[in-house]
From TrEMBL:
PANTHER family: LD22376P (PTHR31061), OS05G0155700 PROTEIN (PTHR31061:SF23). InterPro entries: HGSNAT_cat (IPR012429). The keyword 4Fe-4S does not apply. Pfam families: HGSNAT_cat. The chain crosses the membrane at residues 88-109, 121-140, 160-183, 195-216, 306-327, 336-360, 366-388, 408-428, 448-468. Keywords: Membrane, Transmembrane, Transmembrane helix. This is Heparan-alpha-glucosaminide N-acetyltransferase-like isoform X2. The lineage of its organism: Eukaryota, Viridiplantae, Streptophyta, Embryophyta, Tracheophyta. It comes from the Eukaryota. Residues 50-198 form the Heparan-alpha-glucosaminide N-acetyltransferase catalytic domain.
Amino acid sequence: MSTLIEIGEEERQPLLHNPRTHGNEEEIVASSSSIEPDALKLTLNDSGQRLLSLDVFRGLTVALMILVDDAGGAFPSINHAPWFGLTIADFVMPFFLFGVGVSISLVFKKTSSKPLATKKVILRTIKLFLLGLFLQGGYFHGRNNLTYGVDMVTVRWLGVLQRISIGYLLASISEIWLVKNVLVDSPAAFVRKYFVQWIVATLLLSFYMCLLYGLYVPNWEFQPPSLNLSTNGSHAQIVQCGVKGSLEPPCNAVGYIDRYFLGEEHLYRHPVYRRTKECSVNSPDYGPLPPDSPEWCLAPFDPEGILSSLMAVLTCFAGLHFGHILLHCKGQMHRVLVWSMSSFTLLISGLGLEVLGIPFSKPLYTLSYMCITAGASTLILTIIFYIVDVKHFGKPVVLLQWMGMNALIIYALAACDIFPAAVQGFYWGSPENNLLSSSLTLKICISYWMKTLLGHCMLFLKLIFRVLMAWNHCYRPCFIQASGVPSHLYCSRSYFGALLAVFCT
């Protein structure tokens, strides 16, 4: 932190020079949706400029989300971990939250009216929460079902966008009201400026840890799905708990708080622990219940519950810290250095906590999971920042940049099955004969092809090797033997000669 420079609230200059942008000082770059919060707009609202690396990072997150949704079933390493553990899919949500935190620090780096800014934050939080409720609350019935509508008795109150809205609200309020208006001219001044924010983050962490390990979870019961009544009986199933500090699926404090405040009928009905060995013969994939499966395998559990969402707010605070370093550190490479140190500190902390007995768990959003995903977010964004904003290699990632600028629309259309359901509405003769159903066969073929991706990659590398050898042969004679008769041929430097030489190696 020795690279901090003296910057006042009213003296901050535009972060980065972007020759592609020519907006004036009053221009605000609009987002893809009017209901998207400032944290999802990713704009610098005082200069008309954008931090391109943040757009690319968010676009990479959206692309990763689409990959997980479409290929997660084919590759267990891509799909979410059944309960404990860490896979590629488990980084998607923290990446979104981290990006929200970074952009909040940029959007609210100047606040002329705190009450007005707070009002806007609250309104945008409500809109984002309601959008998530509309998309994931059960109103849309998804693929293979052209009906819509939700029973308010069973509506799912929480979801991905709801969690993002909670993180956005708390992080924004802290950035507006808890940041001291002091001059940052030293590392100590930097700490004083954001000290209250760190205290709030520490209190949130302490509250979460106290409830997770100190809350008594009694025995509880649930009504199994009607589809499984023939197997599990028509009466309520009783889950034996009576413990404190359990992190296992049936008896953790995260699920207990959700059942107590939200109600069992409002929780997610297809939790990831149905892919555990106890609940699936095809683990780590979904499958039939084993003969000796425990009763809780059919119980609901919300992966975006109340207590875990409270812990997820800390990922937004980690993003805030990343943005604060961007605002106050002098020099691009100094920023990269400080960010790299922060990322490795978080990564080592996460691994250390896992070794000490706090496992990685996305459904519980454990401390080790928060640290290692926040560290990975910092490291990846640092790399992208160096490539895009320092070295200005932006053209190769222009697609990711576009996806990042339209993340909310892409999420709504792709991840929430809005687009597939709309396409399925056009059919021939019967609802079953539609374009989406016809594409399922293609998807199966694609999944089969992806399972042999490694073999194809090896074949591609072998082809590259042969091409390189071909260019080498362009400067020497090669021999082709056809029907047992050798034929001497000199390869030219033309593309035909190179292609011909491929078959000589």
